[in-house]
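Design job #97: recover the sequence.
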């Protein structure tokens, strides 16, 4: 027979798998999965939070279990909420179902909860076990936790480059540096994000589409950050029948023409940090920077990037004037540079993918 801790680990892994089914769909809410066992330890209910405004994971799992939940255990990846939001408090649903034991992976960092749900359950006489696979749950919900704690979405920065560090030829040609498997991976990554950000230079040079190619519905918000609004009148991003587009700009551009189609947003300054504050206010947990070198460098300098993904293609582009992935970061000595460690490497067809957490 499995020990208590091992048994809870097994069921918590199942709850984490359920939570992952809604990747990219729940913002501004977290990813949550739940499993209900009856009094004899048999599985009687499962659930996950599919989208903001819909039933929470605990409610779905308890509904599936019905009367069989009485006297049983619920295993949940995030502390049950104890406040009235778009849906009633999950802690009350757990109590009313007659559950006797609650196993929790991660305490909810939301100030409206922050241990209050656990305390409410204990006050009602339920046994509460916490910290089961806590690190795995924190990793799964790193974007949500980061936004709650900092007021900013979790930022991912991605670029594809040749073996000699070029992202385009001297004439600007860049399609395609990476092979189809790597491009397919990028579409999957976009599907897990709430917004994909580029600058005006990328729109002018590449005319990108920036969708997940149908891997999620609705598509993530496409964002163009432009200082000058010097943008082409025709671009794929202006077609909002495919995906929503937000055109963000700084002050002083009100009298300049904007493309028809996108929503416009005036920021206090046309800077990455100002943009992320605005996107957090719109409920974005995770954003993807797919921008040119100047904007990528600014995003790094302003603390807007928490994770890097670099696709390296086995190609040599050459050229002294060829584009590189990052603009000037202001370093003047080697002891100032951004040193990375513990890079995760994997093959994507003929290309190499390197990933690195920065925090």
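Job complete. Output follows.
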């Amino acid at each position: 027979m499995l020990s208590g801790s091992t048994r809870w680990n097994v069921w918590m892994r199942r709850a984490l798998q359920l939570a992952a089914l809604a990747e990219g769909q729940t913002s501004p809410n977290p990813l949550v999965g739940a499993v209900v066992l009856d009094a004899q330890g048999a599985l009687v209910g499962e659930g996950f939070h599919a989208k903001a405004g819909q039933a929470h994971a605990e409610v779905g799992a308890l509904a599936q279990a019905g009367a069989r939940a009485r006297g049983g255990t619920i295993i949940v990846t995030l502390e049950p909420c104890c406040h009235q939001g778009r849906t009633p408090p999950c802690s009350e649903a757990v109590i009313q179902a007659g559950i006797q034991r609650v196993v929790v992976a991660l305490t909810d960092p939301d100030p409206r909860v922050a241990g209050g749900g656990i305390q409410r359950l204990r006050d009602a006489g339920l046994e509460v076990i916490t910290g089961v696979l806590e690190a795995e749950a924190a990793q799964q919900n790193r974007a949500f936790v980061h936004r709650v704690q900092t007021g900013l979405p979790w930022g991912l920065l991605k670029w594809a480059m040749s073996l000699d560090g070029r992202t385009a030829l001297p004439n600007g040609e860049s399609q395609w540096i990476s092979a189809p498997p790597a491009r397919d991976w990028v579409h999957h990554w976009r599907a897990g994000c709430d917004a994909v950000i580029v600058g005006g230079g990328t729109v002018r040079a590449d005319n990108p589409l920036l969708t997940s190619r149908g891997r999620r519905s609705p598509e993530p918000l496409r964002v163009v950050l432009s200082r000058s609004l010097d943008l082409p009148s025709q671009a794929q991003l202006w077609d909002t029948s495919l995906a929503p587009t937000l055109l963000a700009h700084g002050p002083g551009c009100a009298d300049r023409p904007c493309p028809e189609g996108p929503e416009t947003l005036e920021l206090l300054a046309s800077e990455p940090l100002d943009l992320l504050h605005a996107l957090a206010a719109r409920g974005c947990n995770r954003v993807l920077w797919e921008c040119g070198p100047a904007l990528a460098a600014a995003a790094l300098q302003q603390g807007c990037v928490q994770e890097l993904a670099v696709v390296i293609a086995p190609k040599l582009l050459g050229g002294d004037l060829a584009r590189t992935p990052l603009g000037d970061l202001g370093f003047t000595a080697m002891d100032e540079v951004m040193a990375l460690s513990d890079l995760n490497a994997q093959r994507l067809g003929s290309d190499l993918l390197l990933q690195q957490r920065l925090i």
